[in-house]
Amino acid sequence: SRVKDVELLLQNECVDKVRMIGIHGVGGIGKTTLAKAIYNRMFRLFDSSCFLSDVRSEAEEFGLVKLQEKLLRQILKIEDIKVGSVAQGINLIKARLESKKVLIVLDDMDHKNQLESLTRERSWFGSGSLIIITTRDKRLLCRLGEKERYEAKLLNDNEAMLVFCWHAFDSHFPPEDYVNLARDIIKYSGRLPLALVTLGSHLQGSSVDEWGHEFEKLIAIPHSDIQKILKISFDGLDGETQTVFLDIACAFHGFDEHEVTEILNACGFHAKSAIATLVQKHLLQRIGYHLVMHI
To answer: Which residues cross the membrane (predicted)?
Structure first.
């Protein structure tokens, strides 16, 4: 399982030093679920622990100082901690946590300043501590070693069928009348866990005919909850990279990368840079020499 894969990475590291693991992948692939599973299995092994959910939106809405306060409150179990500035928060984290063996999960990070203000240096934490980071942007993990980074994988066909059927039928397998439609919808989902859960729940209790109509509609108009998750990554791009993404999605899906790069460069874009960004942010993937959308 994916939990075992991450645990194997952790076993490669010395348990006495401060370990860091970065989990990266496209939105909706299950990074948060994986981090929660590891956290729940391991938190009792530490002096204290903290799971900071949705760091991206918390930082955007409340700022980095509030995140620093939240981290300190959860780890130290003290409610009245006040931080005056990011610099003061860094000093407090170093001073109060350097002797503690802690487990910290920073979920859904999207900017370097979040990492810098919360867990920039391993020396801030006590021996044996573990820091887990989840992100859509692999570049945020550039300071981690190769064996400290884990790319969250899509489900295989059997796993995808189990997840979808559990939410659509409360069962491990579809009724006979639904088998072909279930396979079509799983293929449409790209085996992305979020899409499987959302679509299975959406279709639960509907007749075969209703499933057929809904599937036709989905092909034309993707489900809003899935669009919302994927749009977060898109909104984080600059204007030119957004345009390159849309051009590839609409006109060059599955095309040879060299050919696409030449065409887009001729249109005045910095195609190599934009494509590299899209791959790093898991909005695009390379299969052989070809560029393919995730979903």
So the answer is: none
Matching CATH number, 2-151, of 3.50.7.10, 3.40.640.10, 3.40.50.300, 3.30.70.100:
3.40.50.300
Which residue in the block uniquely carries the two structure tokens 């059927």? 165
Cα 21 to Cα 141, 142, 177, 291: the distances in Å are 9, 12, 44, 28
Contacts of 62 (CB under 8 A, 6+ apart): none
Question: Rounded to whole angstroms, how far apart are CA atoms 164 and 158?
Answer: 10
Q: Under a CB-based contact definition with an 8 Å cutoff, are residues 103 and 38 in contact?
A: no
Token couple for 232: 């977060």
Whole-number Å distance between alpha carbons of 190 and 84? 46
* Global pTM value: 0.82
Instruction: Give me the amino acid identity at 172.
Output: H
Strands 149-151 and 19-24: parallel
Could you give the CA distance from residue 154 to residue 148 in angstroms, rounded to a whole number?
19
d(CA 164, CA 183): 10
